[in-house]
Amino acid sequence: MTQRPSHIPARGAGWPASLPLPSTIVLSVLVAVVAAKTFLQEAEIVTRAEASSPEISARQAESGPPREPIDLNAYSATLARPLLEPSRRPVKIAVAVPEPEPVPEPEPVVDLPPDATLLSLRGTMDNGEAPRAFLAGPGGSAWVGVGQNFDGWTVVEISNGKVQLEQDGHTAHKSLYNSP
User: Fold this and answer.
1) Between β-strands 149-150 and 132-137, what pairing exists: parallel, antiparallel or unpaired?
2) N or C terminus: fewer CB in 10 A for the chain?
3) Could you give the CA distance from residue 50 to residue 44 in angstroms, rounded to a whole number?
């Protein structure tokens, strides 16, 4: 390999590494100038070809002088009807508002007994004397024994994990683990 003479600086010496070399800048400007000149020459060629084209001249001659604006008031009957309607007739809007029908008085609300589906059995306890059941419902929760009332239901029987309730001749069975 040959040695570089000491009076010739190394490539890039004295020039920041983050900037392109001056020769690169000059070359980039030269390429941009040539590209712009080529583009302008091509645009001029296209413009000359369009001016001499018989098709374009014929179209310009057919179009004639500029037209006057159209008076839309002359077409008021056409514009008054809906364009996309099959009958193309104006939509008729009802002017008279019918009188509302009288609203019947609501029937009085009868107090219905609580629904057994709203009750749940949360636990049972049998200490040998009197079995008890822990019931929960919309009115709260409580420990109850046989013969006692809870949310309108009377406890008829309590067994291991099950309770039988009665109300107005209806019987409901509740299970601790939702088993039949």
Assistant:
1) unpaired
2) N
3) 10
